[in-house]
Amino acid sequence: MKTTSLDRDRVRELFDLQGSYNEATGGKFSEDPYPIWHRLRSEKPVHPGTVHELTGISEPLMFQGLPYPDREHFSVFSFEACNEAFRNPRVFASSPEAVDIDPESGSLVHNSMLSMGGVQHRQYRSLVQPSFLPSNAQWWIQNWIEEAVQLLIDGFVDDGHAELNVDFCAAIPVLTITGSFGVPIEQALDIREALSRDKQKIIDILAPIVAARREEPQDDLISVLVQAERTDESGTTQRLSDEEIYTFSLLLLAAGSGTTWKQMGTTLTALLQRPDVLDKVREDRSLLRAAIEETLRWMPTDPMFSRWVTEDIEFYGQDIPKGSVVHLCVAAANRDPERWERPDEYDITRPTKSTLAFGQGAHICLGMHVARGEMTVGINALLDRLPGLRLDPAAEPPRLVGMYERGATAIPVLFDTK
Ligand code: HEM
C-alpha cells in the first residue's frame, strides 16, 4: 500500500452502520437470543423451522439458506450435531444444486467455492489455500494489515476521542483485502462503494491488475493467484482463469469484510465493557489471542450457516427429508453447556477448545488466519497508541445487535493525548 492518507469522512459515509445492519438480515433485532437458544437446545438438538422463526421473529429474513419457501427447514442447536453436519458434506451439502447431483462427480459448476462440493471444491480450494495458511499470516500483516491499521489511527490519535466501530474496525478488512489485490487506497473506497451495488465496477478495477500481474508478477495476492497451478491425478495442469480470479476476489470481499469488522467491534466492546479484563490484556498482550478466541465463541458475528440435505435422514431424533435446508446455529453450539462450563460468561482464561465460529470441515473459513491477524494487530495498535483507552461515559454505550449479522452499535471511546 503506497499512500499516506485516508479520507475519513468518506470512510464514515461508506461504512454507514444503518446501511450495514440492514433489515433483510434482521438488523433491527436487539434482544438477547441466547436464552431462547438455550431453551431450544435443552428440549432437543434439532427443531423444525428456521433459526429466526424459532427465536420469535415472524417477518421474513434473508441469509445464506433463506428463504427457499418451497423447502422444509430445520435448525440445529447443539455443538455435537452442528459439528457432525459440518463434517459430513456428502449429506449436508453447501448448495441446493447438490441435492440432485452426485457431489463427488466433480461436474458441478458453481459461482464460488463457498457453494461448491466434493472434488470440485477440494481442487479449487487447494489452488488458493497456500496464501491463507497460518505460515502466511505475517505476509498479510507486514504487507497490508499493519499499514492500514496505523493509517486509520493516525486519523484520530490527536483527538482524544473516536468512534471505533466505523472509524477503525469497519475499514481494516476492506483495506487489507483490496491492498492484497494491489488496489491503491483511494480506489479501495470505490470498491467498498461498489460492493453492494455494482460488482462489474469492481471487475473493471481488477481486470487491468490481473493482466499486469500475468505479465509481471509482484508481491501480492493477485500475482499468487495468476501463478497458482496444480497437476491433478490425470496429469492435467490446472490454473485459474481471469473469471475465476474475479469470482474469488468478490468472495473474499463478501466473506471477509463485514465479518471481520463486526467480530473486531464485538471483541473491543467485550473488553471495553470489562475494564479489569482490558487492563490484564493491556499489561500482558499474550492474552489478546485468548480474548479474540473467547469472543468468537461467546458472540460469533454470523450465528448461523446452512446446508442442503442430499438424502432422507434421521438426525439426532429428527426425520429430515432430502432437499430440506438445515440451519446450523453455530452461536448456540458455541454456548453448549455439554462442552463449556458457564457458557454465557465471557472468560478469557478458559482452556482452549475449538469453536464453530469459523465453521468446520471442508469449508472451514479460508481467511481465519487473516481475520485473526487483523484483529490482533488492530487491537494491539490501539492499546499501544491510545493510552487510557476507555468507553466514553457520556455517550450511549455500545450494544450487540442483529439476528444473522451480529455486531456492535457505535463504540465511542476516550483516550489520553500527549
Ligand atoms: C472474524 C471474521 C470471519 C468469520 C467469523 C468467518 C466465518 C466463516 C465461516 C463460518 C465460514 C464457513 C461457511 C460455511 O461452512 O458455509 C467461512 C468461509 C469462508 N471465509 Fe470466512 N470468516 C471471517 C473472515 C474471513 C476473511 C478475513 C476472509 C478472507 C480474507 C474469509 C474468507 C472466507 C472464504 C473464502 C470462505 C469459503 C471457504 C470454503 O468454502 O471452502 N473469511 N468464513
Keywords:
Cytochrome P450, Cytochrome p450, three-stranded antiparallel sheet, oxidoreductase, binds protoporphyrin IX containing FE, Cyt_P450_sf, 17 helices, alpha+beta, 45% helix, five-stranded mixed sheet, 418 residues
Description of the molecule:
The protein is an alpha+beta fold and 418 residues long. Helices cover 45% and strands 10% of the residues. The protein has helices spanning 8-14, 17-20, 34-43, 51-54, 79-86, 118-128, 137-154, 164-181, 185-195, 199-215, 221-227, 242-256, 258-272, 275-283, 288-298, 330-333, 368-385, and strands at 46-48, 73-76, 92-93, 161-163, 229-231, 237-239, 305-309, 313-315, 318-320, 325-328, 390-391, 400-401, 407-408, 412-414. Residues 102-110 have low confidence and may be disordered. Protoporphyrin IX containing FE is lined by residues 94, 113-114, 125, 173, 177, 251-252, 255-256, 259-260, 263, 300-302, 305, 357-359, 363, 365-367, 370-371. It comes from Rhodococcus artemisiae. This is Cytochrome P450. InterPro entries: Cyt_P450 (IPR001128), Cyt_P450_B (IPR002397), Cyt_P450_CS (IPR017972), Cyt_P450_sf (IPR036396).
